Each structure stands twice: as structure tokens, then as C-alpha cells.
Amino acid sequence: AGRSGTFDQDRANLITDDIVICEKLAEDNTNQLVESYKVVHNWYLRPSTLWLMPKAEYTRQKLIRNCLKGRGHAIIN
């Protein structure tokens, strides 16, 4: 329960603390204005151009996933 194949101990008991730490790190290292523009771009501008524009990736979510992977948690998605 909570182990990935590379660790001898389970890490599931640390998931809540790690999520809070990773979210704080991602919040401190992203620009809210840029992230807000990405939402507008993906949800309003892209459909109006019939999805010809490439999708803008959200930096905050990517940082959180990478942080959790680095702390030894298996990430789905």
C-alpha cells in the first residue's frame, strides 16, 4: 500500500504533507498573471479560432507532478 516498485518503505503516509509542500513550492514559482492568461487562451481563444492555436500547458500542475515524483510518489496522469 503506497509503495512504488523502487522503494522498500511505503510513502503513502507522507502524501498529505508532500502535496501541501509541492503546492506551496509551485505557487511560489509561478506567475499568477501568466497562468490566468493560459486559462483564457485554452478556454476562450482556442475555440474561437477552431483550435488552430496550440494548447498552452499549465506550469503549476507540471511543477506539482514533478515535485511529487521527486518525493517518490507514483503519479497517474
Shape: elongated
> Rounded to an integer, what's the Rg over CA atoms?
16 Å
Q: What is the count of DSSP helices, taking H or I runs of 4+ residues?
A: 3
> H/E order of the elements?
HHH
Please give a structural write-up.
This protein has 77 residues and is mainly alpha-helical. The chain has three helices and no strands. The longest helix is centred in the middle third of the chain and has 17 residues, at 32-48. It is elongated and about 50 Å long. It starts with 14 loop residues before the first helix and ends in a 7-residue tail after the last helix.
Task: Please provide a brief summary of the model.
The chain is mostly helical. It is built from three helices and no strands.
Blueprint (SSEs and pairs):
Blueprint: H1 15-28, H2 32-48, H3 59-70
Helix pairs in contact: 1-3
List keywords for this structure.
77 residues, single chain, mainly alpha, elongated, 3 helices
